[in-house]
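Progress note, project year one: complex with 2-acetamido-2-deoxy-beta-D-glucopyranose.
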Amino acid sequence: MSPLNACGRAFFALALGLHRWASCTMVTNDTGIAAGKTFDYIIAGAGLSGLTVGNKLSGKGYSVLIIEAGPDASWNPEVFDAEGRMFGSKTCNWQYPAYGDDGKLLPWKIDSGACIGGSTSINGMVWYRPTKAELDKIETLGNPGWNWDNLEPYMVAAERNIPPDATQIAQGAGSSPDVHGHNGFINTSFPTPLRIPGAVDLYKEALPLVFPGLAVGGDLSNRTSVSSASTMYTIWYDTVTGKNRRSSAADGYLWAPNQQRAKLTVLATHVVDKVLFGQGITATGVSFLPANGSTPSSKTFKAYAAKGVILSAGSLASAPVLERSGVGKPSVLKSAGITRLVDLPGVGANVNDQPGTAAYALVSAAYQNDTSIIDNRSLFAPEISLINIDELWPLTAGSFILDIASQKGLRSRAQALVDAGAAVNIFGAGAVLNASIDLITTHRRKLALSIFHLHGGYKATYLILLAVPIVEFLAESGSSTLYAAFWPLVPLSRGHVHINSSNPLDHPIIVPRLLEDPFDAAVAVAAARASRAVFASAPFEDIVANAYYDPPIGPNGTDAEYLAWYRKSMFGASHWVGATTMMPRHLGGVVDHQLR
Ligand SMILES: Cc1cc2nc3c(=O)[nH]c(=O)nc-3n(C[C@H](O)[C@H](O)[C@H](O)COP(=O)(O)OP(=O)(O)OC[C@H]3O[C@@H](n4cnc5c(N)ncnc54)[C@H](O)[C@@H]3O)c2cc1C
Ligand SMILES: *[C@@H]1O[C@H](CO)[C@@H](O)[C@H](O)[C@H]1NC(C)=O
Ligand SMILES: *[C@@H]1O[C@H](CO)[C@@H](O)[C@H](O)[C@H]1NC(C)=O
Ligand SMILES: *[C@@H]1O[C@H](CO)[C@@H](O)[C@H](O)[C@H]1NC(C)=O
Ligand SMILES: *[C@@H]1O[C@H](CO)[C@@H](O)[C@H](O)[C@H]1NC(C)=O
Ligand SMILES: *[C@@H]1O[C@H](CO)[C@@H](O)[C@H](O)[C@H]1NC(C)=O
Ligand SMILES: *[C@@H]1O[C@H](CO)[C@@H](O)[C@H](O)[C@H]1NC(C)=O
Ligand SMILES: *[C@@H]1O[C@H](CO)[C@@H](O)[C@H](O)[C@H]1NC(C)=O
Ligand SMILES: *[C@@H]1O[C@H](CO)[C@@H](O)[C@H](O)[C@H]1NC(C)=O
Ligand SMILES: *[C@@H]1O[C@H](CO)[C@@H](O)[C@H](O)[C@H]1NC(C)=O
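Model obtained:
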């Protein structure tokens, strides 16, 4: 087997001098590159986190081995072409099965990246910043230092923003240099050309009619102001091929010609089985096996880490590695036949994704060939709206807030998560829920009066402080339709992921428990209703033939009808977090604020 060399493409692409070969990153399928060898650090998973950390550590001179279960798929247009991928594609995708509380298989699969680059090789590429309030909240859960002020410099460092041109600006692309990085690793830009400008104009007009107070335009990453805007992506326009290209973590941190590392080795198509522990439960290395293997015990190899082992196999795969290693909830380890080293019941708990679905309006025949309305291009969601509680329920937000903010409600929600195996104890569940509820309820839209001294006189201006949004609303066009996809952004529901056997090639059992919490269900139904109202609004009058095309539930449909449809059609929005929660151990945390 001839190992791939990451400089190969750099050499051909940029015709760099031969001197570059001396320091190339090694990317290979060859088991022998790692078996029995020692590195400073070993990283499980070459996705977003693993490649970033591997790049930084090897850049500081440490020897690093990254073991990745999937292959190199960077040559595949479904990966590198930003518009080359179809929904539901199996390329570079684990398609994990998902289960209900009752153990029954759910009708949808979980998308998750399964090649070098991880999920950044297949994701929607949507790029915008979080709010300060959300990042600061992480710190309040017992994680000193994890706040906006400390993290914002890394957002700047990661990004190389390519500003829109005059045509894109004229078609609604808003860009503010202050909320972007300009010298980083990952390209961000608007697509060339922009998608469905005619429909986007209509969306920009209609959305504030349905969500009163929604500010439209500007830059989506400006989270102190704008809340509906044209979408920026982790892409760049390649003038040679005339195509938009994905800028994945692999492109930025592994293949980039100026990021080659003699001390970084990526072993592809190999699965990390366990972390090996020495005295005092110190990680000393990992065991691993070829991804095409079938009987693990006969084909397992070991590699050793002098300084540390880092698990970055994604939120659904890192917890299973810990469990196979003997770290986890005793009952899970016992039934999988694993010897227990550490009793850590938070492993695999607190799993969380956003429950998504979409509603379609039929476009009238006269507009079905109008490519400014329907373009059959696959860069998802050209206009994104971030809806807060006041915009979702202009008249009744207050009663929902009273409900979710009550101490009694918090206790029973927390107890429900413990009962479902989604949280370790009522204190931990309460802390996590309370943090989310605080974000939803106290960071509301406010008018704050500020007085500026101007030329000796005084001028009053109103400053709108944006709330943390609770719905992400993505505006699209389909075949003969316009449609909206949407999901609650701060769900209170939680699920769990655990191994069912000691075999590292078996899928874990993932129980998402989407939409179990009644507040999530209420948000979901309100978003679904609002999506119909958008297509029934005046701006769409000419071009929409049927605003209630799919699902065929009309304006008088009951909440129960909408909810039943939502549950039937829903899928995970692919934004999984949790399972190895960073939180103090007494609350059910798995790692501390130093990720140990
Ligand atoms: C379909 C989809 C759409 C998305 N859209 C967006 C979007 O538009 N914008 C956005 O910001 N985010 C989006 N995301 C989310 C984003 O891509 C992820 O949050 C991010 O990639 C997670 O990084 P990670 O390092 O935790 O995991 P990943 O990037 O998934 O990497 C984990 C890696 O570990 C490997 N692995 C798993 N198990 C093992 C094992 N036992 N041994 C060795 N390797 C293993 C996997 O193959 C994978 O390569 C999307 C995700 C998906 C799946
Ligand atoms: C590595 O393995 C993958 C998947 O089996 C294969 O497609 C690829 O060609 C291999 N690469 C090398 C250099 O052997
Ligand atoms: C499995 O992968 C290993 C290492 O990449 C390779 O040597 C072997 O030929 C593969 N076996 C099969 C059956 O594909
Ligand atoms: C965010 O948008 C508001 C309103 O348009 C503007 O006043 C402010 O300067 C913007 N902030 C940044 C950093 O661009
Ligand atoms: C970023 O874009 C430039 C062109 O502007 C391109 O040469 C480079 O390869 C891209 N890098 C990544 C990581 O996508
Ligand atoms: C749209 O295009 C199709 C296929 O080219 C054609 O049959 C149809 O008549 C066109 N419709 C309109 C309204 O132009
Ligand atoms: C849409 O694009 C896909 C993929 O490029 C193509 O197969 C399909 O025929 C196109 N559909 C229409 C209606 O143009
Ligand atoms: C809930 O969060 C608020 C705001 O951070 C905090 O003041 C309060 O103590 C928390 N309550 C519980 C029960 O954790
Ligand atoms: C879990 O393991 C048991 C025992 O081996 C098996 O019967 C069951 O089918 C497994 N469940 C799943 C969902 O794989
Ligand atoms: C919905 O209800 C209103 C008021 O009862 C009624 O006027 C209207 O016709 C109904 N619409 C549909 C589509 O059933």
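Residues 10-21, 447-464 have pLDDT under 50 and may be disordered.
The first strand starts at residue 4 and ends at 5.
No further modelling is planned for this target in the current period.
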